[in-house]
Design a protein that fits this description.
A 6-stranded antiparallel barrel has the order 1-2-5-4-3-12. A 6-stranded antiparallel β-barrel has the order 6-7-8-11-10-9. A hairpin with a 6-residue loop joins strand 10 and strand 11. The chain is of the alpha+beta class. It contains 2 helices and 12 strands. The relative contact order is 0.11. The protein is rod-shaped. It has a domain of about 170 residues: Rod shape-determining protein MreC, domain 2 (Thrombin, subunit H). The C terminus is likely disordered.
C-alpha cells in the first residue's frame, strides 16, 4: 500500500507540473502558487549550484596556479640566461675595446721605431722586499731574451732579468738602485725635445714613489710637466718608451748639474698585461 501511495503521489506531481506547463504556454502571467513554486525551486537550486561553482572554481584556480608556476620558472630561466649573456657581452665588449687600444699602441710604436711587441700575461708577483719581481707567461720559446724592455700601453715597466722556455722574470723599474748588482741605468730624454734634454735615471725613491733623474745639464731646457722617455742610449732600453712626467727639478749636490723627480706613467697596482719589446736590430744577438 505504501508503494502504491508513493507512485500515486509521483504521478500526481508529474500531472501537476504538466498542467502548469500547458497553462504557461497560453498565459503571460503566473499565478501566485506557480510563482511560489518557481521561487522555491530557484532558492533550492542556488544551494546546489553555488557549491558546485566553488568546487569548479577551486580546481580552475589550481590549474591556473600550476600554469603561473611554470611560467615563472620559465621567466626565471630566461632572466638568468639574459644576465649570463649580458655579462659575457660586456666582457667581450671591454676586451675588444682594450685590444683596440693596445693594437693602436703597438701600430703607433711600430711606425715610429719598427719594434715588435709580444703581449704577455702577468702570472705572479713576488712581494720579497729585497727582490720584487714579476713573472710572465712567455719565454725563450716565444723569442724572449734577458735585458729586453717591458712596457704597458701607459709606460715603461722594467727589464727581463731571466728567462725559461715558457716564462720570464721581470725586474721592475721600481727596483732601480745603483747599488744593485743587476743595475742598469736608464738614459732618458724629453718627448719632443730629444736633442735638447738628457738625464740618467739612477734610482727609485720608495718613500715618495718617484724616479730620480740625475746628470741633467745646467742649460737643459727640461721643464716641470714634460714627458720623459727612454733615449735609446746604452743599447739596453729601446728609445721612445714613455717613462713618466717631470714633477720637480732642482740643483744637484755640487751645483753643476740638476736633478729631477719623475712620476711614473705606469701603475703597478693590479698589473695584468704587459708588452715585451723586441728590437729587430738586435734579434739573434745577446743583449
Amino acid at each position: 500500500m505504501r508503494n502504491k501511495r508513493v507512485i500515486m503521489l509521483m504521478i500526481g506531481l508529474i500531472l501537476f507540473i504538466a498542467i502548469i506547463g500547458f497553462s504557461l504556454s497560453d498565459r503571460k502571467e503566473l499565478t501566485w502558487p506557480e510563482k511560489f513554486i518557481k521561487d522555491a525551486s530557484g532558492y533550492v537550486q542556488q544551494w546546489f549550484y553555488k557549491p558546485a561553482g566553488y568546487i569548479a572554481g577551486f580546481f580552475e584556480d589550481i590549474r591556473n596556479l600550476d600554469e603561473l608556476y611554470e611560467e615563472n620558472e620559465q621567466l626565471r630561466l630566461t632572466a638568468a640566461a639574459y644576465a649570463r649573456d649580458k655579462m659575457a657581452y660586456n666582457f667581450i665588449e671591454d676586451e675588444n675595446e682594450r685590444l683596440k687600444e693596445e693594437l693602436k699602441f703597438t701600430e703607433q710604436q711600430k711606425q715610429l721605431y719598427d719594434y715588435n711587441y709580444i703581449i704577455a700575461q702577468v702570472i705572479s708577483v713576488s712581494n720579497d722586499a729585497n727582490n720584487r719581481t714579476m713573472n710572465i707567461n712567455v719565454g725563450s720559446k716565444n723569442g724572449i731574451k734577458p735585458n729586453m724592455a717591458v712596457t704597458t700601453v701607459d709606460g715603461l715597466v722594467g727589464l727581463v732579468s731571466s728567462v725559461t722556455p715558457f716564462t720570464a722574470t721581470i725586474t721592475p723599474i721600481t727596483e732601480l738602485n745603483e747599488t744593485s748588482p743587476t743595475f742598469n741605468s736608464i738614459a732618458a730624454t724629453i718627448e719632443g725635445r730629444e736633442n735638447e734634454s738628457f738625464g740618467i735615471l739612477s734610482s727609485y725613491d720608495k718613500e715618495t714613489k718617484r724616479l730620480v733623474m740625475t746628470k741633467i745639464a745646467e742649460n737643459d731646457k727640461m721643464e716641470i710637466g714634460d714627458t720623459a722617455i727612454t733615449s735609446g742610449l746604452g743599447n739596453v732600453y729601446p728609445r721612445g718608451i714613455r717613462i713618466g712626467t717631470i714633477e720637480t727639478k732642482q740643483v744637484g749636490d755640487f751645483g753643476l748639474t740638476y736633478t729631477a723627480t719623475i712620476k711614473l706613467a705606469t701603475s703597478f697596482d693590479h698589473l695584468t698585461e704587459v708588452f715585451v719589446v723586441q728590437v729587430p736590430e738586435v734579434e739573434g744577438q745577446d743583449q
